[in-house]
Amino acid sequence: MAKLTIEDLKRIKEEVRSTTVLREGGFRAKINIHMGTCGIAAGARKLMSVVLKEIEEKKINDVMVTTSGCAGLCSREPMATVEILGNPPVKYCDLNEERMKEIFAQHVLKGEIVEAYALARGSETTY
Amino acid sequence: MEDLSLHILDIVENAISAKAKKIDILVMEQPKEDRLVIEINDNGVGMDKEVSRKATDPFFTTRSSRKVGLGLSLMAQAAQEAGGRLLIESEVGKGTKVTATFQYHHIDRKPLGSMLETMTTLLLGNSDLDISYIHQKEEKSYVLKSLMLRERFKSQSPTGPEVIQWLRKHLKEGLARIGVQG
Asked: What is the strand order of the sheet A29-34 is part of?
């Protein structure tokens, strides 16, 4: 095995930091919008705009928004993952602007999973 | 993809997947010369000759999860349909530059769409990256850099309400000033 270099350590630090950012950054929730080619073509950017608008209008400071690539389930796009601190992330699929608004109000703000649109609970894997 | 701003979002997401830390987006609108140029330059892992040659082939992808890769092929198609072309220059370890040209007034050229939505999505969804966006229309130009956001909102959440509000306003007014619809 090759020796660990400073670059390797930096990379590991970055990786670990990204997983602990929710806890340490003072965020209560994280919304991840899937932005692969499939997601974008299906309307993922509209979901992003809806989420940003809600945050702006309701003046919310403890929600983090990120984007990721294709999760390998292109036919169910647009998709988003919602993670509330201390709980497993929930993946939502077949979304549109109205559903995203509903999820924001129910899950992100109140912590209640919207089961009608939920696909699965569990961690994120992207390809 | 309905418009070119969605293609731009898609290609930049490619760059992000290629571990780019610095991404430059240039949109040049030259209606008088009947030309529209979109350039996306990243410092990601890059591709070797073989891969960059195949990158616009829809049945080629570097992913193992499935056998199609549509992002660059769709953009190449959009350019070709509008009398232009897509050029990929890439070097392993250095990064990739994607240039798409279009005939500005070509009847089949897709509209540019909302650069406001594309840029807010990119900047707010990737607050750790250095993204710069330059939009030129004839002699006028508009510049936005993620550094501007970081300096202005140092201690705040990268997707806090003030940040979103400021960014949307900056884009809307800036683009309107150069005659581009946000």
From this structure: A63-68, A29-34, A80-84, A90-92, A118-121
- Report the complex ipTM: 0.88
Probe site for chain A from B117, B121, B154 (most A CB atoms < 10 A): B121
* pLDDT tens over chain B, length 182 residues: 899 999 999 999 989 989 999 999 999 999 999 999 999 999 999 998 888 888 888 888 877 666 667 889 899 999 999 999 999 999 999 999 999 999 999 999 999 999 999 999 999 999 899 999 999 999 999 999 999 999 999 878 888 899 999 999 999 999 999 999 87
B4-177 to CATH, choices 3.30.360.10, 1.10.760.10, 3.40.50.1820, 3.30.565.10:
3.30.565.10
Residue of B nearest to A125 (CA): B65
Q: Which of A37, A45, A56 sits opposite B70 (nearest CB)?
A: A37
Task: Extract the tokens encoding B88.
Answer: 């990929």
